[in-house]
Amino acid sequence: MSYQTNTPVSEGLLHVHMFLAGCLLSWYLIGVDPMARRPDIRTALIVLFIAAAGHDILAKLLYSHLLPVTGGTSVQIQGGAQIMYYGGTLIEVLLAITVMTTWYRRGGRALRQHVRRARSRNRVNAPIDAAAGTAAPARRRVPRD
Predict the structure, then answer these.
(1) Helix (H) / strand (E) containing 27
(2) Domain annotation covers residue 78
(3) For the chain, what is the domain count?
(4) Which residues pair with 129 in a beta bridge?
(5) Which helix (H) or strand (E) holds 26?
(6) How would residue 54 be classed by pLDDT, with cut points 50, 70 and 90?
(7) Is residue 111 part of a domain?
């Protein structure tokens, strides 16, 4: 059984496959929906680095060896490979920025939560100001002689 890659159906399936693979990678790295085990920043950046390297190597192979052979003229193949290389780089940089922004926001939320907890611990021990309904500022005790 032979497989032809130059039929419209097989080309369409290949494009759908590549699009869905990119969507899956993006969802894994920056998905906003809840995920049971969201990758930590190091894992996400390693996955992005490996995907970017593979994408760039494939684009360079397509450019230098004029692959696929039945893909069109050499100018068309090299133009497509350049779009793949530079367009992929742009998207990879945007994904990296988004991953780092998400990491920064997570750290900021954790810091704000830590500060809130520290303040609430201090307020638990402080006397309540009945007029204002809040914790009164702590008063310094002056030692008596």
Answers:
(1) helix 8-30
(2) yes
(3) 1
(4) 134
(5) helix 8-30
(6) very high
(7) yes
The parent domain of residue 47 ranges over 40-120
C-alpha to C-alpha distance for 97 and 109, rounded to whole angstroms: 18
For residues 115 and 110, what is the distance between their CA atoms, to the nearest angstrom?
Answer: 9
Is this prediction's pTM over 0.85?
no
Q: Reduce the secondary structure of 28-84 to three states and give it as a string.
A: HHHCCCCCCCCCCHHHHHHHHHHHHHHHHHHHHHHHHHCCCCCCCCHHHHHHHHHHH
* pLDDT tens digit sequence for 58-93: 999 999 999 888 778 999 999 999 999 999 999 999
Question: Whole-angstrom Cα distance, residue 14 to residue 20?
Answer: 10
Average pLDDT across the chain, whole number? 81
Asked if residue 18 is part of any domain, the answer here is: no
Q: For residue 123, is pLDDT > 80?
A: no
141 DSSP assignment = P
Alpha carbon distance 92, 95 (integer Å)? 5
More confident position, 54 or 1: 54
